[in-house]
Amino acid sequence: MAEDDEKPVFFFDIDNCLYSKSLDIHRMMAELIDKFFEDHLSLSREDANELHYRYYREYGLAIEGLVRHHKVDALEYNSKVDDALPLENVIKPNPELRQLIQDIDTSKVRLWLFTNAYITHGKRVVKLLQIDDLFEGITFCDYSSDKFFCKPHAEMYDKAMQEAGIKSNEKCYFVDDSYINCKAADARGWKTAHLLDPADPEPTQQASRYQIRGLMDLRNIFPEVFKDPSSA
Ligand SMILES: [Mg+2]
């Protein structure tokens, strides 16, 4: 297909984006990650926590540092951390979110999930939210591969575009709660919305052209991808 004819793709991050950061899942996850570092690297809780955040800052994902420097099995990590989270107690179906996504006109834009988590976790979250049927596909961080990439590395955005079947950066929409992920997407020309929680402090410099305080604001910043209200 010629690039001119390509239908735009809207990429959605999953964690702390499709569900609220206030659910505190990142804290539950951080505790399991610390525990994993502690058990596998024989570290004190304090050293485990420090290393976890150093890898998170350096690589965007704690697991990338573990695999690079400690030959940790990423799939074992996934089963002890992401897949071990008691999400069923926390993530509930969200009709408002479902309506928002359903109001996007799929004759104008295609919907694609784009996560740094492994496929098992990504699918589990969207299923619990009861929005799993609304997306055409998902690009995830492939922990089973010898060399895997995650956002904000360029290879990961390339992978998402390839899997979603789109060539033009200018036709990619994106929403993510991560500052560095949004900055990288914005730099390559994606129409990027950085999602901040209402309680988050204002960044000194915006990560991307658009910054929103709730997913519902997508209607205001990207009206061109939504169904025409007059024809509803
Ligand atoms: Mg996120």
3D architecture notes:
Strand 4 (172-176), helix 8 and strand 5 (191-195) form a beta-alpha-beta unit. The mean pLDDT is 93. This protein has 2 domains: 3-19 and 91-231, HAD superfamily/HAD-like (Rossmann fold, 3-Layer(aba) Sandwich); 25-88, Orthogonal Bundle (DNA polymerase, domain 1). The longest helix is centred in the first third of the chain and has 17 residues, at 25-41. Strands 3-2-1-4-5-6 form a 6-stranded parallel beta sheet, with helices on one face. It has helices at 25-41, 45-59, 62-70, 74-80, 95-102, 119-128, 154-164, 179-187, 218-221, and strands spanning 9-12, 110-114, 137-139, 172-176, 191-195, 210-212. The chain is globular. Helix 1 (25-41) packs across helix 2 (45-59) and helix 2 (45-59) crosses helix 3. It contains 9 helices and 6 strands. The two termini are 30 Å apart. The protein has 232 residues and is α/β, with parallel strands linked by helices. Magnesium ion binds next to loops. This is Haloacid dehalogenase-like hydrolase-domain-containing protein. It holds the Pfam family Hydrolase. InterPro entries: HAD-like_sf, HAD-SF_hydro_IA, HAD_sf, Pyr-5-nucltdase, SSM1_domain.
